[in-house]
């Protein structure tokens, strides 16, 4: 999952980014409103964390512009403005969530997870595909009750595939949702990670779901058991 | 409780009462004078007539009545017909002759068998006196003596019963009309006062409905009498000032909460991250936390200073301060930033300028002005610190000028507002937008004037003694 953090306090921005990265998110940062808006327009983010009072362009204007352009990325406003009017204004302008500073990092993480799940129309934090269980809270995957040993990036790709199971997911989509601005994935880095994932799934259980390749389109996993 | 309405009512009714009494009195006494003046004249004539007849020895009952229609030569007086009243029973004119302290010698037919008893103490001057007969008739009479020895007393009188009745009637009418007028005027006055004072009542009513939540209400000026307009304008001005200060306080509380929230969020999230990921946080995490804490400390201290100086409760001790030395010392902390931004800094301070002021407050003002100038001048810009000279070239104050970008004329009035920053987002170097507010509060405590002016891309702060 890829998250954009637009916050002008450097110390706060770095801390949020650190904790998000450690939780397995690909994180882009911006300290200015106009740069944040440009990034949000250029990349498909799973969640955007947006401050209101920003140099360059204020958060609410950026938010309105994104919504006008039919940008569907879930947006969480993180602001020191705490009045009911401010919160109502933020939500009415198109934000999906509003968190007032100071806040607990764990709450911010939980809200970002909830927004990601909602974006993929999943309510249960544990997503199941065949005998594969992906726990989006603990960031773990198990197959037929055998815990899989995955690197954060492998987990991120698996989670993305599972959340999009039933759809064909292109390599570019994986790249843009799993890798942040700072890492420039080489053309075969996704293929290699998929290869490793297939092997680990196979090792975990014979009944594990298969990541299929749709030549020329991308990858595909079975739809989850309802 | 004092009431304008009651006071006006009492005064107006008092004036009306005095007027009515005076007018009634005038009418009554005029009527009385007119009536009695005729009586006096007639009495005077009658006295002469009776006296003359008596002297000629012809005074007798019926003496005034002509028997043959011819002229009675003894009665060569005017109004001959009138004198016949002496000879008619119940006539208006009467006379009586009496021995001194003795029998009645003669009386007119009109007196019948009544007798006139004069009071024992006659007025010395020969004025008329009023008498009442036994049968209740009222008389006005003159008492004379028929001879110099005063042995025979002649009383000539005029019956004034009907005149008295007329006067009583006039008096009654005046009282009736007076009471009716008083009641009507009182009623009209009450109504007029009620109507006249209605705008005052409405204003008072509107004023009682004002509370802290309705400071935006203004008192209507339409249909207000001119006497109340100044009060209304004062009240509206007061309301505007109250609203303004409430707004400022409200905005200040909101700003304060807002300004403190970000450093608190930084501190808590960095601490939380250190607890969640003890191995992953960067090495300088604690330095960063310290910086956030110091920013908060600076905001709180500035606010405490502001509260102290704005309340004006602190006592300031005045000392002689060398202006050049103070400027140099206060510029020092900003000089590094000025160097980094390659600012051209010009000092033009008159040498030997000594100011009697509080050194600590004066330095606080200078430090805030200088750091503000260094911070907001664009890279490569200008900062000038110079003496403002009077016409006689004696120093009047200090001017701090820096080049600026993006500041507009309408921003000038907000420069000294607490937490106002040209760019509403917070900066990383701990500037909270309180510096200029603190500087102005300090300047006011020292009775100095601090204002700002904008001229073609350069912002000047004038500190004038």
Average pLDDT of chain A works out at: 87
Structural class by secondary-structure content of chain B: alpha+beta
Largest interface, with counts of residues having CB < 8 Å to the other chain, equals: A-B, 28 and 28 residues
Summarize the helix and strand pattern of chain A as letters: EHEHEHEHEHEEEEHEHHEE
Note the total helix count of chain B: 8
Provide the structure class of chain A. Answer: alpha/beta
Give the neighbour order of strands across the main sheet of chain B.
2-1-5-4-3
What is the averaged pLDDT score of chain B?
A: 82
State the shape of chain A.
elongated
For the record, give the distance between the C-alpha atoms at the N and C termini of chain B, rounded to a whole number: 50 Å
Question: What distance lies between the first and last C-alpha atoms of chain A, to the nearest angstrom?
Answer: 23 Å
What fraction strand of chain B? 15-25%
| Sheet with the most strands, sense and barrel status of chain A | 5 strands, parallel
- Helical content of chain B stands at 40-55%
**Tally of strands of chain A:** 12
What radius of gyration of chain B results from the CA coordinates? 53 Å
Major beta-sheet overview of chain B: 5 strands, antiparallel
Task: Please state the CA-atom Rg of chain A, rounded to the nearest Å.
Answer: 18 Å
Oligomer: heterodimer
Name its key features.
heterodimer, A: 226 residues, 41% helix, B: 465 residues, five-stranded antiparallel β-sheet, five-stranded mixed β-sheet
Molecular structure report:
The complex is a heterodimer of chains A (226) and B (465). Chain A is of the alpha/beta class and 226 residues long. Chain A has helices at residues 10-22, 33-42, 59-68, 84-92, 105-119, 152-163, 171-178, 189-204; strands at residues 2-6, 26-30, 47-50, 75-79, 97-100, 126-129, 132-135, 140-143, 146-147, 168-169, 212-214, 218-220. In chain A, the strands form 3 sheets. In chain A, strands 2-1-3-4-5 form a 5-stranded parallel β-sheet, sandwiched between helices. In chain A, helix 2 (33-42) runs parallel beside helix 3. The longest helix of chain A has 16 residues, at 189-204. The two termini of chain A are 23 Å apart. The mean pLDDT of chain A is 87. Chain B has 465 residues and is an alpha+beta fold. In chain B, the strands form 3 sheets. Chain B has a 5-stranded antiparallel β-sheet with strand order 2-1-5-4-3. Chain B has a 5-stranded mixed β-sheet with strand order 7-9-10-12-11. Chain B has a two-stranded antiparallel sheet with strand order 6-8. Chain B is rod-shaped, with a radius of gyration of 53 Å. The interface between A and B is medium-sized, with 28 and 28 residues.
């Amino acid at each position: 999952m890829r998250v954009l953090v637009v916050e002008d306090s450097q110390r706060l921005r770095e801390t949020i980014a650190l904790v998000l990265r450690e939780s397995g998110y690909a994180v882009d940062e911006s300290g200015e409103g106009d740069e944040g808006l440009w990034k949000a327009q250029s990349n498909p983010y799973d969640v955007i964390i947006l401050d209101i009072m920003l140099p360059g362009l204020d958060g609410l204007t950026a938010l309105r512009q994104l919504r006008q352009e039919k940008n569907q990325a879930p947006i969480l406003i993180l602001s020191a403005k705490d009045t009911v009017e401010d919160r109502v204004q933020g939500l009415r302008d198109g934000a999906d969530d509003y968190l007032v500073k100071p806040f607990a990092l764990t709450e911010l993480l939980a809200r970002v997870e909830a927004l990601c799940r909602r974006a993929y129309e999943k309510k249960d934090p544990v997503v199941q595909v065949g005998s594969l269980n992906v726990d989006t809270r603990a960031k773990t995957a198990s197959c037929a009750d055998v815990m899989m040993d995955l690197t954060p990036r492998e987990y991120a790709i698996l989670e993305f595939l599972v959340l999009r199971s039933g759809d064909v997911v292109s390599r570019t989509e994986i790249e843009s949702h799993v890798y942040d601005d700072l890492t420039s994935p080489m053309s075969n880095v996704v293929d290699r990670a998929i290869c490793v994932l297939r092997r680990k799934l196979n090792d975990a259980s014979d009944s594990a779901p298969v990541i299929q390749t749709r030549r020329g389109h991308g990858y595909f996993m079975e739809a989850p058991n309802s | 409780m004092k009431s304008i309405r009651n006071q006006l009512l009492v005064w107006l009714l008092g004036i009306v009462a005095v007027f009515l009494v005076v007018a009634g009195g005038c009418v009554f006494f005029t009527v009385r004078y007119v009536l009695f003046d005729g009586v006096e004249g007639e009495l005077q004539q009658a006295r002469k007539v009776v006296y003359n007849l008596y002297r000629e020895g012809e005074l007798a009952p019926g003496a005034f009545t002509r028997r043959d229609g011819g002229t009675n030569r003894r009665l060569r007086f005017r109004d001959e017909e009138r004198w016949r009243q002496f000879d008619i029973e119940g006539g208006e004119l009467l006379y009586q002759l009496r021995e001194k302290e003795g029998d009645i010698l003669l009386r007119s037919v009109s007196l019948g068998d009544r007798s006139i008893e004069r009071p024992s103490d006659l007025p010395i001057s020969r004025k008329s006196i009023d008498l009442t007969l036994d049968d209740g008739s009222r008389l006005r009479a003159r008492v004379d003596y028929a001879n110099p020895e005063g042995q025979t007393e002649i009383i000539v009188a005029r019956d004034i019963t009907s005149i008295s009745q007329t006067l009583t009637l006039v008096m009654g009418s005046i009282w009736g009309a007076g009471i009716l007028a008083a009641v009507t005027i009182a009623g009209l006055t009450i109504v007029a006062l009620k109507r006249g004072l209605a705008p005052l009542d409405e204003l008072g009513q509107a004023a009682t409905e004002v509370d802290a939540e309705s400071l935006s209400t203004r008192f209507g000026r339409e249909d207000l009498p001119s006497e109340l307009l100044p009060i209304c304008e004062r009240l509206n001005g007061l309301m505007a000032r109250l609203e303004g200060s409430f707004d400022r306080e409200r905005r200040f509380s909101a700003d304060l909460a807002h300004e403190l929230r970000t450093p608190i969020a930084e501190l808590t999230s960095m601490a939380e991250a250190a607890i969640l990921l003890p191995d992953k946080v960067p090495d300088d995490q604690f330095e960063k936390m310290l910086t956030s804490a110091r920013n908060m400390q600076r905001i709180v201290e500035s606010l405490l200073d502001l509260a102290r100086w704005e309340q004006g409760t602190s006592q300031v001790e005045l000392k002689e301060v060398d202006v050049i030395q103070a400027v140099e010392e206060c510029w020092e902390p900003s000089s590094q930033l000025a160097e980094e931004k390659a600012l051209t800094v010009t000092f033009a301070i008159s040498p030997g300028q000594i100011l009697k002021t509080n050194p600590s407050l004066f330095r606080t003002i200078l430090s805030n002005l200088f750091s503000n100038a260094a911070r907001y001048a664009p890279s490569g810009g200008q900062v000038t610190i110079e003496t403002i000279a009077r016409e006689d070239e004696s120093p009047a104050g200090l001017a701090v000028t820096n080049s600026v970008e993006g500041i507009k004329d309408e921003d000038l009035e907000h420069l000294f507002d607490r937490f106002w920053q040209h760019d509403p987002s917070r900066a990383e170097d701990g500037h909270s937008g309180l510096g200029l507010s603190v500087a102005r509060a300090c300047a006011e405590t020292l009775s100095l004037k601090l204002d700002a002016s904008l001229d073609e891309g350069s912002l000047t702060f004038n500190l004038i003694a």
